[in-house]
């Protein structure tokens, strides 16, 4: 489970829970097959589909120099009907 960072709780992700779709941020270097294998192995569920998109890092100013945080990938995981994932711990910022 090193590849999955934390679950995402936004208005859209909460709405997707009704369709048996779960949203989480994952390591940017992880592939879809790795994430699918981790989810199926760790939670004991069957994954139908996975959608992913890469989100850009945010700009951070350090004096006169503008730096960026690391980019990350967000996965939307669709499970077969009848399966569910218990809520993951939300990351506090």
Order of helices and strands: EHEHEEEE
Instruction: Output the number of helix runs.
Output: 2
Sheet-strand content, in percent, reads: 35-45%
Secondary structure: helix percent = 10-25%
CATH class categorisation: Alpha Beta
How many whole angstroms does the radius of gyration measure?
15 Å
Major sheet size, sense and barrel closure: 4 strands, antiparallel
CATH level 4 superfamily: RRM (RNA recognition motif) domain
Low-confidence spans: none
- What's the total count of β strands? 6
CATH topology: Alpha-Beta Plaits
Proper CATH architecture: 2-Layer Sandwich
Calculate the terminal CA-CA distance, rounded to whole Å. Answer: 21 Å
Number of spatially distinct domains = 1
Q: Report the principal-axis shape.
A: elongated
Structural class: alpha+beta
* Mean pLDDT score: 85
What features would you describe in this structure?
This protein is an alpha+beta fold and 93 residues long. The protein has one domain: 2-Layer Sandwich (Alpha-Beta Plaits). The chain has 2 helices and 6 strands. Strands 1-2-6-3 form a 4-stranded antiparallel sheet. The chain is elongated, with a radius of gyration of 15 Å. It starts with a strand and ends in a 14-residue tail after the last strand. It is found in: Plastid, Chloroplast.
Key terms for this structure?
6 strands, four-stranded antiparallel β-sheet, 19% helix, 2 helices, Alpha-Beta Plaits, alpha+beta
């Amino acid at each position: 489970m090193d590849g999955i960072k934390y679950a995402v709780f936004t208005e859209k992700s909460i709405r997707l829970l009704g369709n048996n779709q779960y949203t989480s941020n994952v390591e940017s270097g992880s592939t879809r097959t790795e994430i699918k294998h981790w989810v199926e192995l760790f939670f004991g569920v069957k994954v139908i589909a996975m959608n992913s998109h890469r989100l850009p890092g945010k700009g951070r100013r350090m004096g006169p120099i503008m730096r960026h945080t690391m980019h990350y990938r967000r996965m939307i995981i669709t499970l077969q009907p009848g399966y569910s994932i218990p809520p993951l711990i939300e990351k506090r910022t």
